[in-house]
Design a protein that fits this description.
alpha+beta; globular
Length: about 300
Amino acid sequence: MHIAVLGNPNSWYLQDLKRAAGLRTNGTIRFSSLPFSAVASSITPKSDIAISVGAQSLEQFDAVLVRTMPPGSLEQVIFRMDALALFAQQGGIVLNSPRAIEIAVDKYLSLALLAQAQISVPRTHICQTVDEAMAIYEQWGPELVIKPLFGGEGRGITRVSDQPLALRAFKMISQLDGIIYLQEYIAHAGFDIRILVVGEKTFSMRRINPDDWRTNVSRGATVEHYEPTDELIQLAKRSAHTVKAQIAGVDILIAPDGTPTVLEVNAVPGWKGLAKATETDIALEILLFIEEQVANGRRNISNQELGSNRKS
C-alpha cells in the first residue's frame, strides 16, 4: 500500500506512521511526503482531469492522508481543496475528506453546524466592526475569549477581562481586515477532554493545565488516560460526523452546570500526547483504518465492474 501524506516531511507524525507501518506483516506500506504547494491539475478537452503533486500523479497512491492545512492566499486554498475534492470524486481515497477539512478549519462554520445538530457549544458571536464587538463585550463581559477564525493549538487565542484591552484587541483585528470572533469564557477546573475518533473507535485523554486556562499540550498541559461515559463517546462521534470527518479530535469541556460542551473538532488531529496517555499505538490504529478504507474502495470498484458486466 502506497500512501501520500500531505504534510511536513520532517513531522513527528509521519515518522510515527512509518514506525507503525513496520509492525504490519501483511505487506509493505510506503509513504511519500508531498507539499500542498506542489498540487497541480490538468484538464483535457475530453473532460479528463488529472491531479498531481509535483511529478507524481495522485492516481498512483492507494490513499491520501492530509496531515496539515498550511496557510495560503484565498486562491491557493480554494484550488488545493477543489483539486482534492475532484480526486475524491473520481474515486480517490482522501482522509479526511476535503469537505471535512474545510468545515473543521473554519471555526465559524464548524461551530454553527454543531449547534444546528443540537450539540452544546459555547455562546459565540462573530462580527466585523469594533462597535458591535464592544456592544457584545458589554453584554457578556467582563471576561471573553477572542479567537482567530482559522488556527489551532491555542495560537492566537486571547482572554480579555477589561474594557480597554478588549477595545485595543478589536481595533487591531479590524485594522487587519479580520473577523472578530468572540466566545464566552467557560470557567473550568483546569482540564478538558480530548476524544480521538477513528472510524468507529475512540481514544480518550484528559488534558490538565493548572497554570494556564488553555489546556493545549503545546501550552504545557499534561495528559492522563480518561474513561469517558457512553454519553461523551456518542457526543464525540456525533461531532465528528457533523463536520464529516472520519478521523477527528473532539475537544470537550464540562461546563460548571455539568453540561458537556464541544469547543472544537480538529480534522488534522495530533496523537502524540494521546498515545502516551492511553498507552495505545494510535499511529497503528490510523493505519488499520486507512487499510480498511482502501479495501472497501477496492471492493466497491469490483462491485461496480461486476454490475457493469451483468448489464452487458
